[in-house]
Write a structure and sequence with these properties.
By secondary structure, the chain is an alpha/beta fold. Helices cover 28% and strands 27% of the residues. It is built from nine helices and twelve strands. It has helices at 53-60, 82-88, 109-114, 120-136, 153-165, 183-198, 210-216, 247-254, 289-293, and strands at residues 3-18, 22-37, 41-45, 67-75, 78-79, 93-96, 171-175, 202-207, 219-224, 227-233, 298-301, 304-307. α5 (153-165) packs parallel to α6. The two termini are 29 Å apart.
Length: 313
């Protein structure tokens, strides 16, 4: 498959001031590596508040001014500059935000989807295209003249998806698209991503919902304390989890109610709580002395990747 997105060794930190003018660098993401191909759904799975949504902001070039970004973000093999990101976002790369609050409460739906344009012919073409996409997502012409508060949760979600697809993007980034939705609307939303995949669009799904990830993703990147610790294929999440590699991924899978709800003691450490070594060290059942001293590298095992000394040379 044609590779669309390559994220290589990306780290994100923020400059903060404490106690007056004392400055510190707050790390949130460290050494994040993944890729998304055409017609593939890749899920980044991590706990709420872990900072994984910053990946979307980094790809789109919308990180705040006090952010430091290191590493490489490539699109179709080309490393993206800030200017490149500004030129292709909303066009070849589109965002489906996590909150329907991204919709302007004071504008009618059709107006904000089409955007500002004074050219009558261009506006007509955009209106026609918007209506065609809305029809695909069961949004009647009545929706065009509605305001966001008049939409149901499911309708608002479909509007956000339709808006992202208006520019015919090659890559769609869906940032936590399912929280707060009922089960029916969640499945409806996930089916829309399946439809995108069938049309050749690459989808980067950022979520804390393992059920959503397992429902649609071809591959899943497990995000833990700012690191991608494993990239596994969907089929690996089966049986007793014997095909999963990292002990945290195995524990996450076994913690599902359908797998016995077996919980591991401890918590996922924040960056400021970590000193040296593997971020999973304190909770790991197979830890070695080196795990306390060094952070393992992400090892490439073909279709899989894992950050664990157990699989090193």
């Amino acid at each position: 498959m044609e590779k669309l997105l390559d994220v290589e060794n990306v780290s994100i930190s923020f400059v903060q001031y404490t106690q007056g003018l004392n400055q510190r660098d707050l790390k949130v993401i460290t050494d994040l590596t993944l890729d998304v191909s055409k017609g593939e759904i890749f899920a980044v799975l991590g706990s709420s508040g872990s900072g994984k949504s910053l990946l979307a902001h980094a790809i789109l070039g919308i990180l705040p001014g006090n952010a430091n970004l290191n590493g490489k973000i490539k699109y179709k093999g080309k490393e993206l500059t800030q200017k490149d990101k500004e030129e292709i976002r909303g066009k070849e790369i589109a965002l489906i935000p996590q909150s329907v609050n991204f919709l302007d409460p004071l504008m009618k739906i059709s107006e904000q989807v089409i955007g500002n344009t004074e050219d009558a012919e261009e506006k007509k073409e955009k209106k026609q295209k918007q209506r065609e996409i809305f029809e695909q997502y069961n949004l009647s012409s009545e929706v065009d003249d509605m305001y966001p508060f008049q939409l149901s949760g499911g309708m608002a979600r479909r509007v956000l998806i339709s808006t992202a697809l208006l520019s015919e993007p090659k890559l769609v980034i869906a940032d936590e698209p399912t929280p707060g939705l009922d089960e029916k609307t969640v499945m409806e939303t996930l089916n829309h991503f399946k439809h995108m995949k069938e049309t050749g669009v690459g989808v980067l799904l950022i979520t804390h919902d393992i059920h959503a990830a397992l429902e649609v993703a071809d591959r899943i990147g497990i995000f833990y304390s700012g690191y991608v610790i494993e990239i596994a294929e969907n089929k690996d999440f089966s049986g007793n989890g014997e095909n999963l590699l990292h002990p945290y991924t195995k524990a996450l899978y076994k913690a599902l109610p359908s797998n016995g709800f077996k919980l591991v003691k401890g918590h996922q450490p924040l960056h400021e709580e970590m000193t040296t070594g593997c971020p999973y060290y304190d909770r790991c059942e197979i830890r070695m002395s080196i795990c306390k001293e060094e952070i393992p590298k992400l090892i490439d095992l073909g279709n899989k990747k894992v950050r664990c000394f157990k699989y090193g040379d």
